[in-house]
Design brief:
Blueprint (H helix, E strand, L loop, with lengths): L3 H8 L3 E3 L16 E3 L34 H7 L2 E5 L5 H8 L4 E6 L2 H10 L2 H4 L4 E5 L9 H4 L2 H4 L5 E5 H6 L1 H24 L18 H16 L1 E2 L11 E5 L9 H7 L4 E5 L3 H6 L6 E4 L16 E9 L9 E7 L4 H4 L11 H12 L3 E5 L37 E4 L5 E4 L1 H15 L4 E4 L11 E3 L25 H27 L5 H13 L3 H6 L6 H10 L2 H32 L1
Parallel strand pairs: 1-5, 3-4, 3-6, 4-5, 7-12, 8-9, 8-13, 9-10, 10-11, 11-12, 13-16, 16-17
Antiparallel strand pairs: 2-6, 14-15
């Protein structure tokens, strides 16, 4: 019979129960005490420059805890505390009594939780900022990453405390919980600052941030494609129950090329943008290529491949769409839907292989074979890629491990292989593993040297495929999008006017040598801060945000004028580049 207090916690929404794990002992009450976890914090593998990325250097993105941190000390430094093991102790009561702290309790043994509830009143646990979980952290539905709100991880770096019972009997389980939550903290509190959107914006100040410069370039380049190619809704379940081979650019791809060639008629081959070059050089044309990265760098690979008239590109509307390299394109994601139409989307996170999996799911595929999907390497100092990839780099010599940046984050595979990866890829692997677990799609990873494993992902070097790849001919005859071309023309006219005006303003400011130049420049800068222009300038080639801010906000009058000229030179160059891109697109309409 179910324990009534456990049932009450579930009913109140305080407790979520995962699948049971192996338990030890007789389930006796845990007396505590809690001591700070002695693990090496995941955030130590982030670049130190993102710890204080703001104009106000006193603001901290993440912090490091001393090994002897007490509970009162932790509560002074963070609002997010995680307790592994439930013990009716002073430390737990301090957490629960703090109305500022968010407290997450994890307990592997529900027998211990029941004993705890005999002493601890349910009313004391019934508070908004307390969450309780039991069992395997990789077994919840919805997944733990969906249940825990992102805003919670922006309250502070999680401080982990555990009892001696957990430390002694549940070390592996505790590692899983700690790593999972630290990855979520990275995802929600750090990645936004160290990732593509803000990596060129330090020190951060309060400006409007919309499209990246790279994305704006792609918008203008892609206008002809927006008018011509359909969205991914037309691909829904078009390859129902077909097997899929998902190809990434990991170093083991080279050894799997013949397997892909043999099975191209048995399964749909979906490759990520960085894997298309080595495939084509081996004479293998994938059925689909996917791209979701919106940076300018992500599309460079398309300059190194021939035209592929029999290959379908599935791309985010703000990505490089490959020009004339592909026979047909399907787009996902929306930009100005009132002008360019509303499109469907694909779930993705952290790595383009997540997009490849989402496309296979969207197509209705029943099984996915993963090739080159390693997301890690045996090199602690840099990721390795397949030979021939545009990301291929020479290996560095051996160095002593330091267990912090710039060393990569260590991950032990299910086969006890020690690999190393970036925090972004570790996060991507967690996200995708959870998506696969809950998708009911069979996934087979062909690499032992991969960090993408979990429930629903098995290993087999060359899984046998017995299906038949259906014809894709109908997919090359999609219904074109129905867009109001007059609205598109209005948009183009507006953008031409915007950048012509900004070009003229920048020229005027650069020619101004009068005493009021700095005052006028600061007034214009204030306007451009609020309409996304400054944000795009931050990513313009050759622009140094550090130099700009030092000159304009920390220097004297002469330095301010110098900094403003630096800024307006880039506004001028960027305006002329955008006008040129729009002009080329207009010719191609």
């Amino acid at each position: 019979m179910e324990n009534s207090k456990i049932a009450a916690l579930v009913e109140l929404g305080i407790l979520c129960r995962g699948e049971p794990v192996e338990v030890f002992g007789d389930g006796a009450e845990d007396p505590g005490p809690y001591r700070y976890s002695d693990h090496n914090q995941l955030c130590r593998f982030e670049h130190p420059r993102y710890q204080h990325p703001y104009q106000d250097e006193s603001v901290t993105t993440y912090r490091f805890f001393a090994q002897d941190t007490s509970m009162p000390e932790a509560l002074e430094q963070t609002r997010l505390v995680v307790l592994l093991g439930v013990a009716d102790s002073e430390a737990l009561r301090q957490c629960v009594a703090s109305r500022q702290a968010v407290v997450i309790l994890f307990e592997p043994d529900e027998r211990v939780l029941i004993k705890f509830l005999e002493r601890f009143k349910l009313a004391e646990l019934n508070r908004d900022n307390l969450f309780c979980f039991t069992g395997n952290p990789y077994s919840f539905n919805p997944a733990l990453q969906e249940m825990l709100p992102g805003d919670m991880f922006r309250l502070g770096t999680p401080a982990f405390f555990m009892t001696d019972r957990i430390r002694r009997n549940y070390g592996s389980w505790a590692h899983q919980v700690v790593e999972y939550l630290e990855i979520l903290h990275y995802r929600h509190a750090i990645y936004g600052l160290s990732g593509q959107s803000l990596c060129r914006s330090r020190p951060l100040r309060d400006i409007h941030r919309g499209l990246l410069l790279d994305q704006q370039v792609h918008v203008y380049e892609n206008i002809p494609d927006y008018l011509l190619f359909s969205d991914i809704s037309q691909l829904k379940n078009r390859l129902k129950d077909t097997d899929a081979i998902l190809v990434a650019a990991g170093p083991e791809l080279d050894g799997k090329l013949e397997y892909i060639r043999r099975n191209r008629d048995r399964a749909v081959v979906i490759c990520v943008n960085n894997a298309v070059k080595p495939l084509v050089e081996a004479g293998i044309h994938p059925h689909f290529v996917v791209i979701n990265d919106t940076s300018l760098e992500s599309g460079l690979v398309f300059r190194h491949i021939p035209e592929l008239p029999g290959t379908i590109l599935v791309g985010h509307c703000l990505s490089d769409l490959g020009g004339d390299r592909f026979g047909i394109k399907y787009l996902f994601g929306s930009f100005l839907p009132q002008v360019f139409g509303q499109r469907g989307n694909l779930k993705l996170h952290g790595s383009v292989i997540s997009t490849a999996f989402s496309l296979a799911r969207h197509l209705g595929c029943a099984k996915c074979v993963l090739i080159g999907v390693q997301l890690a390497s045996d090199n602690p100092w840099g990721l390795d890629y397949v030979k021939g990839s545009v990301k291929e780099k020479p290996k560095q010599g051996e160095q002593t491990l330091i267990n912090k940046y710039p060393q990569l984050y260590p991950v032990t595979t299910p086969f006890d292989e020690q690999l190393y990866t970036t925090l972004n890829f570790r996060d991507a692997a967690l996200w995708l593993a959870e998506e696969i677990r809950l998708s009911n799609i069979v996934c087979v990873n062909t690499s032992r040297a991969s960090i993408l494993y979990g429930p629903g992902i098995s290993f087999e070097e060359e899984p046998e495929l017995s299906g038949t790849m259906p014809s894709l001919a109908a997919l090359f005859r999609p219904h074109p999008p129905r867009l109001d071309r007059e609205e598109v023309r209005k948009y183009i006219k507006h953008e031409l006017g915007l950048w012509t005006n900004l070009r003229d303003v920048a020229r005027t400011m650069l020619e101004d040598t009068g005493p009021a130049m700095a005052a006028k420049g600061m007034a214009i800068l204030d306007q451009l801060d609020r309409n996304n222009i400054t944000y795009m300038v931050e990513r313009h080639t050759g622009f140094s945000n550090w130099d700009f801010q030092k000159l304009v906000f920390r220097g004297d009058e002469a330095n301010r004028r110098k900094g403003l000229r630096l800024y307006f030179r880039h506004v001028l160059a960027m305006s002329e580049e955008f006008l040129s891109i729009i002009g080329r697109s207009v010719k191609n309409l």
